[in-house]
Amino acid sequence: MRGRGDRLEKLLGERELDRMLVTDLVNVRYLTGFTGTNGACVCAPGLRLFFTDFRYTERAASEVEGWEPITVEGDWLASIAERLEGKVGFEDDHMSVRSLEKLKEKLGEGVEAVAAGGTVERLRRVKDDEELAAIEAASKLADAVWEWSVERGFAGRTERDVARAAEARIRELGGDPSFPAIVAAGPNGALPHAEPGEREIGRGELIVFDMGAMLDGYCSDGTRTYASGDPGEEGREVYGVVLEAQLAALEAVKAGAKGEDVDAVARKVIDAAGYGKRFGHGLGHGVGLEVHEAPRLSPRADDVLEPGEVVTVEPGIYLPGRLGVRIEDFVVVTEDGYRNLSALPKDLQIVE
Ligand code: ZN
Ligand code: ZN
């Protein structure tokens, strides 16, 4: 966590804030290392305060480094408000209206609360080595679970059985699922966020299998589409178009590229093949402590990629009532390209 407070301090200067109050627990964890369920922190030049309550005093002592620990005994917001001065950024995208009202009541004279949501998320976009190591480990674990799932086969099993078995395997290997696994076969594959159901997977169906593992708080996210036997001409064609779009978009990933431009590369390939209306979601998103975070790769995303960001590239085509295909890798953005964290093959795998 060292250095993250310093990066935040620098950003406060740029945004003309005197102090920043961080209340979102994921952001608190990112800055301080604290993994409990009640904590907040205040950052200002030369000032690093971490607040928690008596239940977490000991945990804070072992996890939090470089922030002065304060165990709040009385009123939570009042104790924090005492340490706020000048223009104070707060996380308007995470704080409830009620908490904000209460906080404002307790602020001293001349102290102004300024909406500053997204400030810590901005820092979180670029991963340091420690974070990249955790993300890579999560990715390796997930890859092992795909391989294990493929060995067990798909045809004749229910979507739910495949999904639950994969999640259990992630736990056996020491991780947690970073989100409920999606296994959507045949016509269900056309629903990008289908919940795995009791439908038995037949032969010759395309199976969208989207999952991720979480290790040390960091997530992975990936999708492969398998076929339980020859998926027919339409299935093969759609798979080929998605793969072409995915490979083309990957080549557009590099520092300095704009989210909307990378998205457009994939969309162009899919449009040209006549499936433009069947790719109804953005191309990708950042991954880190949360499975969906900044930056975005989508139409109208003006995020400019930076080295060290981790993003997914996941085009898909969904034909209602028939089939769906999505291929998702997640990659580290580098100065002149990317490093792929997903090592699974991408040619159509027939798995019966
Ligand atoms: Zn994703
Ligand atoms: Zn995914």
Strand order of the largest sheet: 4-3-2-1-5-6
Largest sheet: 6 strands, mixed
CATH superfamily of the largest domain: Creatinase/methionine aminopeptidase superfamily
CATH fold name of the largest domain, please? Creatine Amidinohydrolase
What is the total tally of β strands?
19
CATH class type of the largest domain: Alpha Beta
Beta content: 15-25%
Give Rg in angstroms. 23 Å
SSE pattern, N- to C-terminal: HEHEEHEHEHEHHHEEEEEEHHEEEEEEE
What low-confidence regions span 5 or more consecutive residues with pLDDT below 50? none
List the total number of helices. 10
Structurally, the number of domains stands at 2
Amino- and carboxy-terminal Cα gap: 46 Å
Average pLDDT level: 96
The 3D shape can be described as elongated
What does the model show?
The protein has 10 helices and 19 strands. By secondary structure, it is α+β, with helices and mostly antiparallel strands. Helix 7 (129-152) crosses helix 8 (159-172) and helix 9 (232-252) packs antiparallel against helix 10 (259-272). It starts with a helix and ends in a 12-residue tail after the last strand. The model has no long low-confidence stretch (mean pLDDT 96). The chain binds zinc ion (2 copies).
